[in-house]
Amino acid sequence: MSTPIPNPVLAITTLLQDSGVVPDVIPAALGFRPSVFFSPVYRKTDANAVLGTKLSKDHTQDEPALRIVRSEDDEIDEAGKEKSYTLVLTDPDAPSKKEPKFAQWRHWVVCFSPLEMHVRSRGRIILTCDPVS
Questions:
Q1: Is residue 132 part of a domain?
Q2: What PANTHER family has UniProt attached to this entry (predicted)?
Q3: Which domain covers residue 98, as residue numbers?
């Protein structure tokens, strides 16, 4: 059993900064604050893509299923019904940190509206899953 994270927004923001996703992918000036948490699960291998962990190519060849959790701060009101969310699965330092010539390689892009998150676990796929090579 895993230990609950006391403040998931702070924990994820810190991981994004420590890994260089902020500012390399998300400009620091945006003041990014996550309000929805996506957890990709690769069904064939039962591998969970948890931020900050590494998964082998063998575990990530197929399109993942998504677990979606809204933070307590993400309340849906009448104005919020028009909000949409985008999940972008990238490799921020492809093929390696020492030689990131393909940095920000997009493997998968999926868009969700708030209501879709209650109805189904898949959003509209914008860019199909491109397995790691």
A1: no
A2: PHOSPHATIDYLETHANOLAMINE-BINDING PROTEIN, PHOSPHATIDYLETHANOLAMINE-BINDING PROTEIN 4
A3: 8-127
What's the token pair of residue 70?
Answer: 């809204």
Measured distance CA(119)–CA(7) in Å, rounded? 27
pTM for this entry = 0.61
Helices (H) and strands (E) in the chain, counts: 3, 6
Residue 113, domain member (yes or no) = yes
Query: Does a structural domain hold residue 26?
Result: yes
User: DSSP for 23-43?
Assistant: HHTS-GGG-----EEEEEEET
For 108, the 3-state DSSP assignment is strand
Per-residue pLDDT of 13-26, as tens digits, reads 898 898 888 998 88
* Residue indicated by tokens 């927004």: 9
Return d(Cα 75, Cα 12) in angstroms, integer.
19
Residue 13: which of 21, 25, 5 has the closest Cα?
21
